[in-house]
Amino acid sequence: MTAAQASAGSPRRTPPRHLGWIVAAGGVALLPAAPVLSLVATALGGSFAQWPHLIAHVLPDAALQTATLLFGVGLFVSVVGCGTAWLVTAYDFPGRRALEWALLLPLAIPTYVVAYAYLDLLHPVGPAQSAIRALLGYSSPRDFRLPDLRSMTGCVLLLGLVLYPYVYLSVRAVFLTQSAGLIEAARTLGMSRRSAFWRVALPLARPGVALGVSLALMEALNDIGASEFLGVRTLTVSIYTTWVTRSDLGSAAQIALVMLALVTALIALERWARRRQRFATAGHGARRMTPRRLPPLQAALALCFCLLPVLFGFFAPAAHVAVQAAKRVSFAGLSDEIPREILNTVLVSSAATVMVVALGALAAFAARLAPRSGTPAFARIAALGYAMPGTVVVIGLLGPVGALDGLIAAAAQAGFGAQAGVALISTGTALVAAYTIRFLAIGVGGAESGLARIPPSVDGAARTLGQTAAGAYLKVHLPLSKSALAAAALLVFVDCLKELPATLLIRPLNFETLATHLYGEAARGTYEDGAVAALIIVAVGLLPVILLSRVGRARDTPARARPRPMRAAPLGDLEIGPAR
Predict the structure, then answer these.
(1) Residue 175 contacts by C-beta under 8 Å, 6 or more apart in sequence?
(2) What is the CA radius of gyration of the chain?
(3) Using an 8 Å Cβ cutoff, are 165 and 81 in contact?
(4) Domains assigned to the chain
(5) What pLDDT, on the 0 to 100 scale, is given for residue 575?
(6) pTM surpassing 0.90?
(7) How large a percentage of the chain has pLDDT more than 90?
(8) In the chain, which residues have pLDDT < 50?
């Protein structure tokens, strides 16, 4: 057999379609994978001489406090989030319409701002305890004082008050899409409305509960500021102190690896627990549940239950921050550092936002182009960074960043005879990379949300008219999904603005953001000097809350009264966390 005959007889392997997009999506998936691999290498390369000390004195207590905190926060956000979502969906009472969006307000305020505000408010000589002593006739903190807020209970309550909207938002969306026929069928079988909630509505909402609780727990695990100042030594705080205070990067990486294994186990356990459950919803034409009017006493109780988390989770700390900021400005004027810190914050947050949206759109569109090539798995991997706390991401980045800095320094020395130093860290590029990996899930979820509303026939029509895949995306898909991408960009920008752990660990020298300025003032005990920065963070954080409240009202509008959209909705089904 000749070579020509052999070649003619054997099928010629052709590269898969859209190979460039598949390779690019694989490159995006490497972003969160690279820090994990580097973290393992750093942990294995570190000294294990400290492990007897860590096992005896650090890890058991830190793991126990972390587990206790996660359990308490998970229970709190589940009860408050599911309860408020059911009340504003299934019942009608005075103030319900306002509470639908007001219950989202705690999303605007970071956990560390709430912790600092309440530490100042509830200080033994602070305004709250002083007012209580005046009412009770006491004159000194020695005569009467409230329990110390610096405790596990205080940390659970404060974190829960800030993080419950994750559960409220996802569970309310499920309740709104549930058919009224399901509840009515349960009622005809003799169930009370309360029994229908426990036996029908809540089990069907379990995917929303799981998503909201997992997001809340990821945020609680990522927290440094609130936990540290409230006296709770979590694994995240242990990583930070081991690295920064003891200058032991290897041991910090080993603790981070333990925490990453804990996060992976939690996610696997949650998915294993509902492996055999299947959920289905009625069609889009299903009639939604009509809220039932509550009698006066029950309406007052429902109003109080929904109002208390808003009052203590947003209005009380935000009002205190605003008052302290006004006092600071009236007494000493605006600090000269604030404009520079605003500029630093905007620059790094904007750069990370552009990267997250661009890479998320690339991964999502590649998954749409080649759904059978494994590319959708790349999009899922790219979204895993949200499950990694900022401290883990930063420690994992140090290896790749150090290697790239070495290459840049060698190239600069060979080509120009210049000393480049640690270029990526000193210019803030490493910080932008940490933000990008941490919040890439939002970009992927936003792009997938926008693309899901575009029929597949549009792709074929664009290719028939001679457009390449890139041309079809730029001229067709991007204009149709730009609203969802803009909403994702807003969420990413605000999350970057509020991010504290990654910023503390990998920011350039003498580079302060609003978050690090507030942390520094709180560490020195001068909360009022950081109040202006805290107020700016809270004010900017209100923007995505306003956007989410508009989406919630759009979903609550009856289908017959809602005009048919001519383009993609502002947010659609955008997930705040990793897409599932």
Answers:
(1) 85, 86, 89, 90, 201, 205, 289
(2) 26
(3) yes
(4) 19-44+336-512 (1.10.3720.10), 49-233+293-325+526-562 (1.10.3720.10)
(5) 41
(6) no
(7) 14
(8) 1, 3-4, 6-7, 9-10, 14, 282-285, 558-580
